[in-house]
Amino acid sequence: xxxxxxxxxxxxxxxxxxxxxxxxxxxxxxxxxxxxxxxxxxxxxxxxxxxxxxxxxxxxxxxxxxxxxxxxxxxxxxxxxxxxxxxxxxxxxxxxxxxxxxxxxxxxxxxxxxxxxxxxxxxxxxxxxxxxxxxxxxxxxxxxxxxxxxxxxxxxxxxxxxxxxxxxxxxxxxxxxxxxxxxxxxxxxxxxxxxxxxxxxxxxxxxxxxxxxxxxxxxxxxxxxxxxxxxxxxxxxxxxxxxxxxxxxxxxxxxxxxxxxxxxxxxxxxxxxxxxxxxxxxxxxxxxxxxxxxxxxxxxxxxxxxxxxxxxxxxxxxxxxxxxxxxxxxxxxxxxxxxxxxxxxxxxxxxxxxxxxxxxxxxxxxxxxxxxxxxxxxxxxxxxxxxxxxxxx
Length: 393
Prior knowledge:
By secondary structure, the protein is α/β, with parallel strands linked by helices. The chain contains 13 helices and 22 strands. It is about 35% helix and about 25% strand. It has an eight-stranded mixed β-sheet, with helices on both faces. The model has no long low-confidence stretch (mean pLDDT about 95).
């Protein structure tokens, strides 16, 4: 997601400086080039050699060690991140003070700046620090965190630096065009569980990764995103409101409750087609055979397609084999705007993997996509949705 981007990272004197290693590694995994400036105070907590050894990134710290580094580094960067950002560097920048390499480079930088504050809660709540933060925000500086939790001094309060994953997400979001501002996106994700008794249920192999990728991508693009998720083992996406459900009936109720406030509905969840006709209130004793009577669940996508005032609707058609004809049938029968077909029997596509290979189908034709990471697939799906919404204005 950050392929080809150049990020300048400033590390200041906080015990949270050790987290910078994971931040740098995360950027590198996303394809970014990272340059690092460390203050003298930060080197009391972590050494430049450790940063360079762990990440392979060159570290700068001496104002006069590299001629014009205070100009060259910010000039060649696409984004400036200060993590951790102490009360000192926040106040320096608010006052325009440039007395070391980092503070001077910040003043020389012309682009997006993100700071991740880290300090004791008393320092963070100090009116002077709050005033300086608000002033920097008014100039366009973005902040991530801090968070409430245990602090290095043994106290609890707001002041913990955000975790590397959240910081990386904020940087990715900063680079993502906000072409979906004003859109209210409802996404379903994951499997459902249809209970047989209090301990047994019928489900499927959906991991939820595709739906979570779509929700994440829409939030990065500026949309207000609500996700209705079946039971998965995934972290909650940043800037996404998540409603957890278990059964297909619960998902149906949740969708119908939220759909009227949505401008885009993406049905990515693998909802069970059948549910037991009878739910035992006690665990069924083991026998040689067990016969289940199954009945159909409600077709959520179909019901949404029947609404008179419906949003843009996209659904998924997971098939085993190249049954794209079934996906095309769904587009018409369910009265939706888009169907995303994928053959889950193909290697690297479908359930339990990070990649997917899909065909986007709408009334104007088909758009086959090569095998790619689900985040990239999500972006392509949203690209096409926004194109169709413009066509249908």
